[in-house]
Amino acid sequence: MPGVMNVVGARPQFVKAGPVSRALAASGLVEILVHTGQHYDRLMSDAIMADVGLRDPDYNLGVGSGSHGVQTGLMLQAIEPLILDTGPDVVLTYGDTNSTIAAALAAAKLHVPTGHVEAGLRSFNRAMPEELNRVATDHLSDLLFAPTDLAMSNLRKEGLEERAILTGDVMVDALHSIDLESLELPDWSGAPFYAATIHRPSNTDDPERIAGIIEALGNLNAPVHLMAHPRLKRQMEGFNVEIPDSVIVDAPLPYATMLGVVKASQGLITDSGGLQKEAFILGVPCTTVRDETEWPETLEGRWNVLAGSDLAKLAELVVRKPESDRANPFGSGNAASEIVAQLMKHID
Ligand code: UD1
Prior knowledge:
By secondary structure, this protein is of the alpha/beta class. Helix content is 41%, strand content 14%. It has helices at residues 11-27, 46-51, 68-86, 98-109, 129-140, 149-157, 170-176, 201-204, 207-217, 230-238, 255-264, 273-282, 314-318, 335-346; strands at residues 4-8, 31-35, 59-60, 90-94, 114-117, 143-146, 164-166, 194-197, 224-227, 247-250, 268-270, 286-288, 304-306. The strands form two sheets. It has a seven-stranded parallel beta sheet, sandwiched between helices. A six-stranded parallel beta sheet has the order 10-9-8-11-12-13. The structure holds uridine-diphosphate-N-acetylglucosamine. Residues 10-12, 38-41, 44-45, 65, 96-98, 129-130, 199, 229-231 line the site of uridine-diphosphate-N-acetylglucosamine.
């Protein structure tokens, strides 16, 4: 039976697809849930899926890790026959990973309508694989579900306004679905600490850069809990990076626990896109170890600051006091039902 093919593959996509999957179920539309297999470790995949209420996928393409060309190519090769076999009315993609571009390209070439959730984000840094993925996915897709006014304006500048719809951000829906007060948090979260995550190739793949980041984390005025992506862990080991006593390397946390830990922290240090925004919504100062952000809304009132090129300033930046007021540019938490309502208009 035709329906909506929801394609996920990497950790942030499970979070974004959770609310949409629930809204699809409530609408009565059939969902075909496809996991490309881009992320496969339990802590990067199954644990997060369970945490955000995603059911077991109908299909797991088992693609795994590889160079960009190999990984994306294997996905294309696997998604194309699946679209032909299942005949979805629309293929939905999320964010900016290799799973996103592969699904959008496979569907567009087969003339199957596509929707892109989290359309219109731009870092304007073409060296990021995600920037290439998001620009290409927006131009390939038929329905562009934009989370913010700024995303709408980016799409307008690229001549895509006719396909763009402002829906709000599905990550707000996901965050609202968690009861932060009744979470069980790790014991260490009772004392002052900073939370940190680092996973971008630009930060992990150069030995001097990663050593510089870890050293800077060691100079903060409280211990740092570093929730390490598998690539970061592997690179730190491979490069023999010296880890100061005050930097504690932990495994990646499930979604809800991570939100609770960020909320309990003195501040977040990250290069993740989604976490910058979650910290902003939770009212936690975020210091981003990059030179640019695709979420410039978070920079307002210094809730988020960019510290990519000046690691020596990190200790000074993390203790800043952001302005007390901050806007709510990400919507009120009903983006998923808005997206599904739009899909219903476009499915006969
Ligand atoms: C991908 C996304 C990135 C997103 C991130 C979230 C792309 C281009 N990038 O980056 O936008 O922010 O997911 O985490 O799609 N690995 C494991 N186990 C896993 C998954 C990965 O060990 O379950 C290791 C492998 O060594 C792999 C490396 O991490 O080669 C990178 O994984 P990959 O899926 O290529 O990209 P991410 O860095 O996770």
